[in-house]
Amino acid sequence: MAAHGLVHGELGLNCIHLCVDMQRLFGPGYPWAFPWLQKVLPAVEELCRSHPERTLFTRFIPAEREGDGRGTWQRYYRRWPEVTLERAGVEAVRLLPSLERFVPPAHVLDKRVYSPWSEGRLDHFIAEREIDTVIITGGETDVCVLATVLGAVDRGLRVVLVIDALCSSSDATHDALMELYLSRFSQQIEAASTSEVLVQWR
User: Fold this and answer.
1) Residue 106 in 3-state DSSP?
2) Cys-Cys link to 133, which of 4, 15, 23, 112 (CB 3.0-4.6 A)?
3) DSSP string of 145-193, one letter each residue
4) Mind listing the pLDDT tens digit for each residue in 26-35?
5) Is the whole-model pTM more than 0.85?
6) What gap in Å lies between CA 179 and CA 98, rounded to an integer?
7) What's the CA gap between 167 and 118, in Å, rounded?
8) CA torsion angle for 67, 70, 76, 82 (degrees, to 10)?
9) What pLDDT does residue 24 have?
């Protein structure tokens, strides 16, 4: 999909790069690995390098063992026991090696579900820094990125999706979600390339 551009102007000081779940768990050698991860990683690295102090990484933390979790999450981890911490190991939840070097000054927020908003810590982070814009990268476009985007929209934040820095294990649903974001949320969500974001992020 072609970039639609930053139609609402430059990216100001009250802006953060919110990088969703770029972890080893989704990289080579793990059950949830998806090939796009390596393809978008250089763009994510470039954004982190430009403003490490204004980067926040979220990390999806699986259940400890099979059958753990609340409600349907129990069924979820019975379906995916190989990604539990007991089976995959704590190494799996670490950021990808090339991204760990940005922490600090970059920040890390852990979550047990798709959305980073559910426990209130991200709300506190945003309010404390008077953030009004989130630049979103990472994966997956149609799962954890979706939950992150909708939470930001609900809070009235300007959302910028970096189209060459988002990934999914499904081309079809990635494309469908990008179409949804830009057709149904056009007043709240913008999409731009990494190069355009870097030019406009002062």
Assistant:
1) coil
2) 15
3) HHHHHHHHHHTT-EEEEEEEEEE-S-HHHHHHHHHHHHHHSTTTEEEE-
4) 998 898 988 8
5) yes
6) 30
7) 23
8) -50
9) 96
